[in-house]
Sequence to fold (395 residues):
Amino acid sequence: MKALKAIVAGTIYTPTETIQNGVILIDGARIAKVGPKDEIKIPPGTKVVDNSDRIVVPGFIDMHIHGAAGHDLMEGTMEAVNAVGTYLARHGTTGYLATTVTASLDRTLHAGKTLGEIIRASQTSSGATDKIAGAQPLGIHYEGPFLNVKKRGAHPASQIQKPSTETLTKMLDAAGGAARVFTLAPEVEGALAVLELARSRGLKIGIGHSNATFEEAERAIAAGATQAVHVYNAMRPFQHRDSGIIGAVLIDDRISAELICDGVHVEASAIRLLVKAKGVERLILVSDSLSGAGMPDGNYRLGNFTVHVAGGVCRTVEGNLAGSTITLDAALRNLSNFTGLTYQQCLPCATLNPARLLGMDKQKGVIAVGADADLAILDREYHVTQTYVRGRPVL
Ligand SMILES: [Zn+2]
Fold:
């Protein structure tokens, strides 16, 4: 038997239930038991970690992140993955999708291949996972290259391509099964064929960087799009006679909404509207962070180009917002402050909801028997004091 560990917690949010004075018993990488202290028998020889003045929640899952700590994930190296993972774990994130930015096909395929190798190696049972520092890459999110040039945000216009199932096949083959999300603009000619192929290969479909009308967005949702990326940003604006993709996202329960909750990308009133329309169960917090996250102001790489970071805000040379420097621990606190919902009500938006969308909510995003022991320990102001990734303390 592997070494047992027991985390004694003041409060546990599973996140759907609250357990006061609880215990989480960890056996290796998994949660063996969870419940109130007086119901869980801690076997002799167990290492007991006292967090009786703290809150324990599932580790956060970031479905949309390009980089952090000076590294862009398209570098596709262990060095980049370890640097990003270490930084994220300090902020309670235990799993993420390595997200690409539109680049030349060669560069995209290279990133897909190298990230795919790292991700597949980390998922074997040989313990290779423990070679990755901090948060684990759970898959690849391809953002682009089939976007609408009118809503490209920071994606370089010269590299945006016409939707092509051939190109998609190359990208999926390069990733060798590690691609989990594909984001495109559904209104561009040929996009629906790409959407259908990606879906048939088991990917979740994001729509965004899009000038879609309401009808075009609805067609994509009917064809199986599951989430809209960074809602409100890089989308056709909502108007009362032309509600567009935002109108579809707000009223259609079949689609979830990603949100960058840093108070810069979207203002609080628009966030409250989104929460009213979608409910917290269809909201997914993402960082969309760049290599400049966790670094001083200055110039940083995003894929193939330079982004300037000043006061934590990232912009391209043309002045377009280009991703963020936020982490999900701060995004959750912001969401609670902006909406008046409790922290616990907001918590699924960074844990259970992304895990469920990705079809991994038995293993990730929950504190439950048999799930991975991915945990964030918080003080009473919801700041992270310790993180566990598959049972290992990483701070
Ligand atoms: Zn984007």
